[in-house]
Predict the structure.
Amino acid sequence: MRLVTILRVLAAVAVVTSISLFAPLDSARAWLTPLPKSVETQVDAATHYGLDGVIVYWDDSRGVGHTYAAGWFDRDKKIPAKPDALFKIASISKLYIAAATVQLVADGQLELDASLKSLLPAYSDKIPQSERITLAMLIQHRSGIYNFTDLENYPWDNPPKSNADTLAMILGMPLVFPPGSETRYSNTNYILLGEIIDRTLGYSHHQYIQQRFLNPLGLKDTYHVLADADINRVMSGYHVGYDKDIKRNDFVNPGGSMVATAKDVAVFVRALNDGSLLSNRAQALYGDLYQFGHTGLVPGFQSIARYHPALDAVVVEFVNTSGGNSTLTLGVVYRRIVKILERQAQRG
């Protein structure tokens, strides 16, 4: 069976977010097992539920970080999971794109009500109603533009190598809904945001994110695309029903391309939440436009990164398994880790 066939289920699997009476066995077992006392024990147990490798990083209210890893960094070579492994963070990348866009708005270089037609004239006759689609709608997934990863023939096993090639797959397609009338997740929005930032600045949004966010935060283990990273440090990725390591399968589009360690992601998410990443005006705008945490999913790699105000903690989970029941199990393990931290906080 070709990889492209078994990966077409990813979009449907990704929306599963809760446990029900009929939850798959591995996920149900993960949920019903008595809650352990420590995060480390929970991470070790996670590999018994069909997950190849797990990395969890969390920081406490004092800013002290804790990293745990279990399972395999490389299943075939029997290399254990490494806490500092690089990982494809997939759509967590959207936090970086959204932050960059909003900062440029706050700095007066972009306007939220500017139309897609004015921002990217080259696409004005190829995306319906581009004169009605605004920058804010792109950030918030309210544009109505078709999500390219929903295409039945999307080549998961050999994704396009440029934004132009990816956009060509959906240009000319009708909108899914009138601009601004609904909210529906679309990866296409963030390709267009990347293109808008590049055109506005006259240089790559990668450079802007590096200089404006990553360097000031000291994030030396965050990379914009897989090609920038040391492939030997990148955790292997596996899809249920496909035996090969798929970590070299590259996704280059803005909003899904980045590679980082769990610690680096946590540092970024905390800065985004505590106001130290953005200017005061940008922080105020951001709160009305986009979320402060995110999940990620590409073949072989799934992730969650969120800030929990009651704990004053960022919790990041990486899993190098996709397909089957892995998305559901990922969420179960994450919620259990948060519960463990809540109990520890209650005990003081």
Remarks:
- The mean pLDDT is 92.
